[in-house]
Design a protein that fits this description.
Largest sheet: 5 strands, parallel
Structural class: alpha/beta
Order of helices and strands: HEHEHEHHEHHEHHHEEEHE
Shape: globular
Helix content: 40-55%
Number of helices: 11
Strand order of the largest sheet: 3-2-1-4-5
Oligomer: single chain
Bound molecules: xanthosine-5'-monophosphate
């Protein structure tokens, strides 16, 4: 792929589409939304308003880290605290697709629609990539960022037009464009992280207590495996409980699953053969978390499993 040409084309198209209007975008710090942010910053300058929406589902320190990193790149990012709104939308929901729907609604109809009104924007820029569209259209999983492809008319439903400059690229293409744009490796090679964020790492209802737990488990797994070179690694909190012993007493505790996968594009994935000592070290640290008394390593490839549990 000719990255320089792709960048030129998208910058020109964004300029032409947005004209003298304002565009907004939501940056998560993932490679897709980061590339959209930089392309649009080049194309639109101060006509672009970029927001990081803290939905309570982010990893440890993530909102501040992303805002700092883009400040260094010369792109101002406004942090929006929407934690309460997302947590109350997720309250009582256990079904995975309903959780995704609650997040979609809070994100597009709630926070973004309000930001569009406040900034007077007519356009929303989106990091949708080809794989998101294909998987959604095939009915495998409704990615939370798919709207027009499943018949949602955003102008009528939310009051803004969606532009998707990356919709012809797959992940490897986006990573190449990210490097060509000068994004640091920590972004261009960043491990995939699901749009529904840590809510995808909790089976069952999302609560603040479970989020705090899965956030700590995620930090342990990411810290331990950071140099393992795998495609994706993370922790998931199950809904089931198991019997254990803590302080000489019986405890009906929580179960955390660790997943570490090799893959090229997430369509198929195999399990990483991690060293036993590494697994023991992760397990020891995870069962030291309050209320957790089991740590499992999942050996199931995709298919028949998916990478995530939710
Ligand atoms: P699955 O679980 O379907 O995941 O094997 C495939 C890859 O996609 C990520 N994933 C998502 N990414 N929005 C995203 O942007 C989502 O709703 C979503 N769900 C899963 C997952 O982490 C894996 O890399």
């Amino acid at each position: 792929m000719d990255c320089a040409r792709f960048i030129r084309q998208q910058v020109d198209e964004l300029r032409e589409s947005v004209g003298n209007d304002i565009a907004i975008n939501a940056l998560s710090g993932g490679v897709d939304s980061s590339v959209v942010t930089l392309l649009a910053h080049r194309a639109l300058g101060s006509k672009l308003k970029t927001f990081f929406i803290d939905n309570a589902l982010m990893r440890e320190g993530e909102p501040q880290r992303v805002v700092r990193l883009f400040a260094k790149l010369g792109v101002p990012v406004t942090l929006v605290d929407a934690r309460k709104e997302f947590l109350s939308a997720l309250k009582g929901i256990t079904d995975p697709e309903e959780k995704r729907q609650a997040i979609t609604d809070s994100f597009y109809a709630g926070v973004l629609a309000r930001l569009v009104k406040k900034t007077g924007a007519r356009f929303l820029l989106h990091g949708t990539i080809l794989t998101d569209i294909e998987e959604t259209v095939a009915g495998i999983k409704r990615q939370h960022n798919i709207l027009s492809q499943i018949g949602i008319k955003t102008e009528e439903a939310y009051g803004y037009t969606v532009l998707e400059p990356l919709k012809t690229l797959r992940k490897d293409g986006v990573r190449k464009v990210a490097s060509a744009l000068g994004l640091p490796r920590e972004i261009s090679q960043r491990m995939p992280f699901p749009g529904p964020a840590l809510s995808a790492r909790i089976v069952g209802e999302v609560t603040e207590e479970k989020l705090a737990l899965v956030r700590k488990a995620t930090a342990i797994v990411e810290g331990e495996l950071t140099s393992c070179g795998a495609f994706q690694y993370f922790a998931t909190l199950l809904e089931d409980r198991a019997t254990g012993i803590r302080g000489g007493k019986r405890e009906f505790g929580r179960i955390v699953v660790v997943r570490c996968m090799e893959s090229k594009d997430a369509r198929k994935a195999t399990v990483t053969r991690l060293p036993w000592e590494k697994l023991k070290s992760i397990s020891r640290r995870i069962v030291a978390l309050p209320g957790v008394n089991r740590c499992l390593y999942d050996l199931t490839p995709k298919p028949p499993a998916t990478i995530e549990y939710v």
